[in-house]
Specification:
- By secondary structure, the protein is an alpha+beta fold.
- It has three helices and six strands; from the N terminus they run ββββββααα.
- The chain folds into two domains: 4-65, Roll (SH3 type barrels), CATH 2.30.30.40; 68-139, Dedicator of cytokinesis N-terminal subdomain (Substrate Binding Domain Of Dnak, Chain:A, Domain 2), CATH 1.20.1270.
- Strands 1, 2, 3, 4, 5 and 6 form a six-stranded antiparallel β-sheet that branches.
- Strand 4 and strand 5 (51-56) form a beta hairpin.
- The longest helix is centred in the C-terminal third of the chain and has 23 residues, at 95-117.
- The radius of gyration is 18 Å and the shape is globular.
- The N and C termini lie far apart (49 Å).
C-alpha cells in the first residue's frame, strides 16, 4: 500500500491512548490534537507540535474545523503556546509569574469549555468572547 496525502487542514482528536510502540509511531494521549498529513490503509501519518509519526485510524476522531469558532481555535493555540512558557517559569522558579499565568490559563480553559458547550445566549457568548480576547491580549504583552 502507498501513503496518500490528505486534504489540507485535516485535524483529529485522540479518543484512546496509544503508546506508539511501532517504528515511526506517534504516541497519543486522549485529547491530543493531531494534524493529519497522509493515510495508508488503517493508518494515519500526522503531527503533533514538534513530532511526526504514524498511528491507527481507530484511535482518533476526525474534527471538522470549518465549523469551529475562530475564538475557540485561537484560545486553543494560545494555551498550547503558553504551556511551554508556563513550564519555563516553573523551571526558572518565577513563582509569581508562574502562579499568575496558571490562573489566567485555567480561566481561559474554563471560558473555552463554556464556548464549546453551546449553552450560552448570543449576548453571553459575545461577552465571553470579548473576555477571552482581553485575556489573550494581556498574556501576549
Amino acid at each position: 500500500m502507498k501513503w496518500v496525502p490528505c486534504a489540507d487542514n485535516l485535524f483529529a482528536v485522540a479518543i484512546h491512548n496509544w503508546h506508539g510502540n511501532v517504528k515511526y509511531g506517534l504516541s497519543l494521549d486522549v485529547g491530543d490534537c493531531v494534524e493529519i498529513i497522509e493515510e495508508c490503509g488503517q493508518w494515519y501519518r500526522g503531527k503533533k507540535p514538534k513530532k511526526v509519526g504514524i498511528f491507527p485510524k481507530s484511535y482518533v476522531h476526525i474534527k471538522d474545523i470549518s465549523k469551529s469558532d475562530p475564538i475557540v481555535s485561537e484560545c486553543t493555540q494560545v494555551l498550547r503556546e503558553w504551556a511551554d512558557i508556563w513550564k519555563g517559569l516553573y523551571v526558572e522558579r518565577e513563582t509569581y509569574k508562574f502562579t499568575t499565568l496558571r490562573k489566567v490559563m485555567l480561566s481561559l480553559l474554563e471560558s473555552r469549555r463554556e464556548l464549546l458547550s453551546a449553552m450560552l445566549t448570543q449576548d453571553q457568548t459575545l461577552e465571553l468572547q470579548h473576555n477571552v480576547i482581553s485575556k489573550i491580549d494581556w498574556g501576549n504583552r
